[in-house]
Amino acid sequence: MQAAAIKMIFILVAFFTSATRATETVQFPQDFQWCVATAGHQIEGDNIHSDWWAWEQLPGKIANGDRSGKASFHRERMEEDVQIMRNLGVKTYRFSVEWSRIEPTEGDFNDEAIAYYLKELRLLKENNIRPMVTLHHFVQPQWFTASGGWKRQDSPNLFLRYVKKVEEHFGAEVDYWVTFNEPMVLLFAGYGNGVFPPGETSWDFWEQKLNLLRAHAQAYRYMHEKARQRGQKIKIGMAHHLRPLKSTGFITEKFLPFVDYLLNWNIPVALKTGEVVGLKRIEILGVPLFPLKKKAVLDEIKDTQDFVGINYYTREAIHLNFKPPFIHRLPLEGLRASDLNWGLDPEGFYEVLKLAHQQFPEIPFYITENGISDSTDELRPEYILTHLRQLHKAMTELPHKIEGYCYWSLMDNFEWAEGFWPRFGLFEVEYENGGKRIVRPSALLIEKIFRTHALPDEI
Ligand code: BGC
Question: Which of 16, 53, 135, 377 could hold 440 in an S-S bridge, CB 3.0 to 4.6 Å?
Answer without folding.
Answer: 377
